[in-house]
Amino acid sequence: MLYKLAHILRDRFGFLWNIIEWCNAFVFALTHGSALRKIPGILEECSGQFTLRVAAPADAAPLAAFFAEQPEEAFKFFKPHAFDEKTLSKNIRNKAFLTFLVLDGEKIVGYFFLRCFVNGKSFRGRIVDYRWRNKGIAKQMGLTMNKIIAILKVRLFGSISPDNYASLQSTKAVNDIRIIKTLDNGYYYIEYLPKK
Question: What global pTM score does this model have?
Answer without folding.
Answer: 0.89
